[in-house]
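Researcher: Next entry in the queue.
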Amino acid sequence: AELDRAEWFARTAVRVAPDLPSTHKALGLVLSARRRFGDAMDAYRRSVELDPDAWGALINMGDVLDIQGQVREAISYFEQAYAAMGRVYEAQTLRVQPWYSELAVLLGDRHRSLGDPLAAERWYRRALAHRPLHPTATVQLAQVLSERGDVDAARALCRTLEQRVARAPECPVSEEDAR
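Model: Structure for this entry, 179 residues:
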């Protein structure tokens, strides 16, 4: 019943403001929740047609594909969203900032899951460029470096994280291992 109501509101919003990207994104969210993924993707596409920098809709498109197991295709939308966030960062800093590093970590994770540690490393480093010592990005990067054989670099990352932020038992080379 709540989804019926939400869909009614979203469709009404699209009718009232068809040129507003956010109305189409809202409809896409409801349709995604209903698992009507094709229709949701159509709504998100319309949002992006209206605003090529509609990074939220691009993330949602990636999510839909990710849910459906289409990880490679999802990555493309996540990367487009990240690029759009970069273009609007100055104008939308308060909206973009909480998502920027998180999206970079997600991209690192997806590339890593597909067996591309170099791409994963680049995305974890991007996350850390925006939010130094981001715990997840730091640990994931340390794991990638350790797997690649660069144990000294992994150890240094873990040591810095543990000294400045918090204990990180999931770090592949923790302070205790260094002794």
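Model: The radius of gyration is 19 Å.
Researcher: Noted, moving on.
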